Amino acid sequence: MPLSDHEARLLEQMERALYAEDPKFADSLRKSRRANMDRRGAALGFGGILLGLGLLVAGVAMPFVPLGLLGFFTMLAGAFLTYRAVTAKSAPAAEAAAAGAPAAPPKAPKATGNGLMSRLEERWQQRKDRGQF
Prior knowledge:
- This protein is an all-alpha fold.
- It is built from 7 helices and no strands.
- It has helices at 5-21, 23-30, 33-36, 39-61, 65-86, 92-99, 116-130.
- The chain is elongated and about 75 Å long.
- The two termini are 37 Å apart.
């Protein structure tokens, strides 16, 4: 059942408010792992891992070291392809423009420390400045 115009506007306002409040969290919700995964590359990499495992076992079963080494390097290449396919990232600017997301708000100056307390104090100060408690 499609959303009514009022519901669609309300949802859009909520999305903009979420993005303004915490852009990193909003980005993490917008991007799903499956959307970023290159399925063909992942399947090719997984097939390479299985092929390499078979060659490695065959190289060990028959005392033929080069076949075992070939299997190991095939597994390594397959693991690399799988990792690269799963962690592939598209351009965030193009994705945000396509999704119609608002531009990210300007970042506040960083606190002097990098610890948890510094970040919490910075967030508290930002909320205090905006009048939100």
